[in-house]
Design a protein that fits this description.
The chain is of the alpha/beta class and 336 residues long. The chain is built from ten helices and 15 strands. The two termini are 13 Å apart.
Length: 336
Amino acid sequence: MKAIGFKTSLPISEQESFIEFETEKPVPSGRDILVKIMAISVNPVDYKVRQGSAKNKSLDVPKIIGWDASGVIEAVGTEVKHFKAGDEIYYSGDLNRQGCYAEYQLVDERIVGKKPVNQSFPEAAAVPLTLLTAWEIIFERMRINDRDSGKSVLIIGGAGGVGSIAIQLAKKVLGLKVIATASRKESRDWCLLHGADFVVDHNSLIGNVREAGFENVDYILDFVNLNQYWDALIELIKPQGSIGSISDPTADVNLRGMKSKSISFHWELMFTRSMFQTEDMEQQSNILEKAKKLFEKGILKSTINKRFNGFTVENVKAAHELLESGTSIGKIVVLF
């Protein structure tokens, strides 16, 4: 089968930052399913792994990355319970296994959902990683529920992949008052399109949030840079409020500042369940199935904003280059 990978970590501008190669088509066993991939999307984790996993060395076998895909099941392992050949699915995958930059991929059925019937393969491929991340941090880590309707949430990075779907979950499912951050007109418009009540510039964050009418907020979701905004988040959160983050701090943060307000803090990594084979690993399949119904009812919509037609090295490199630029809005998809 055709695959696209890399042997060494190179800047995306380098000719061999990605290479095309042939590899053996995998065979499913146990709870694995074999997927014929129809579309993939790229995420920051993709370029972070590309930049860091083969530094100053050359791998014997090219590494295949990618953790967002949609496709059709071609075959299933003997222990698969919930899927069959021919099912159209969407999923994110497992950080410890071969990624989706390939024509076929094995994936555990416990982290797979059936594709929403009203979505194309590209629209569906744009969803899983960010949907699971936003869902887990909002509903499971911070335990926000429909009884919190009317409360306020500040979303740092509203126009990004996770921010785009988090806005929708917060507003359209939970009924929260959503304040999102964005600095450019096109990113502000994107946040408003997906349901934000207010959009504020992340520069002078405290003043801009208060100018929007919020002295403090009940919840804060950081999808950008915890170090950059930490002091502002502590200032803006209400006493007994909750802060959640998916970012990777490069320096210590002062937890002592949380004490006087009794603030709770929550980490989210979407790959935790699959990496550690947790007892509740199948919850990710359940989340994707619940989201499927919300997409089909029109409550949620795909956050796809840019697509490249054709599974080629050139298109994969272009997708990475756009994502690394920091100017992308929503999700970037490569259609096979």
